[in-house]
Design a protein that fits this description.
33% of the residues lie in helices and 21% in strands. By secondary structure, it is of the alpha/beta class. Strand 4 and strand 5 form a beta hairpin.
Length: 172
């Protein structure tokens, strides 16, 4: 597969009430085609959140409603890079996204980072951000170390923090 320069075309998802921000590294080929986050059917991001919040998240409309209702913002650390396909290990020539586009307009209290590559790049390019950050294991199918039950267990920190950030529960 050939490495090519790619620009992130999916805008940040947030509302003024967003209190947590979940950052990935860079959208997969499928996500770029679908123009929405975690669109590859093998990525476990939406199944993990569905399980944690006891809800069904299938369509983009359901996902947008869920994110809005639960004050969750989504974006990626990388604004452009060279990459082969969708593999984080092939990412080079990184230009970071300007996270202040969300942070200056929302009420972000905590940042969660989906995967080690995203976390390492977040730390490299965002030293000026003074919001607590927690790395979480990647939901990518390439992360075979973590089966879905272990991902759900580790990602449950978001639920544990839910009351602290005062966003409504899914059942409210």
């Amino acid at each position: 597969m050939e490495r090519k320069a790619v620009i992130h075309t999916i805008g940040p998802f947030y509302t003024e009430k967003s209190s947590i921000l979940i950052l990935g590294s860079f959208p997969s080929v499928k996500s770029r085609e679908e123009n929405f986050f975690y669109a590859h059917k093998m990525n476990r991001f939406w199944p993990v959140l569905s399980s944690l919040f006891n809800t069904k998240l299938t369509t983009v409309d359901e996902k947008i409603e869920f994110l809005t209702k639960n004050n969750i913002a989504l974006w990626d650390v990388i604004g452009s890079c060279t990459i082969e396909g969708s593999g984080d290990q092939s990412i080079r020539d990184v230009v970071p996204n300007n996270l202040s586009l969300i942070i200056d307009k929302a009420q972000i209290k905590h940042i969660y980072v989906n995967g080690q590559k995203a976390y390492n790049l977040y730390l490299k390019y965002n030293r000026n951000i003074k919001i607590p950050v927690t790395p979480l294991p990647s939901t990518s199918p390439a992360n075979a170390t973590f089966k879905i039950d272990k991902l759900i267990e580790r990602w449950s920190v978001i639920i544990k923090d839910q009351n602290q950030f005062q966003f409504p529960s899914q059942n409210a």
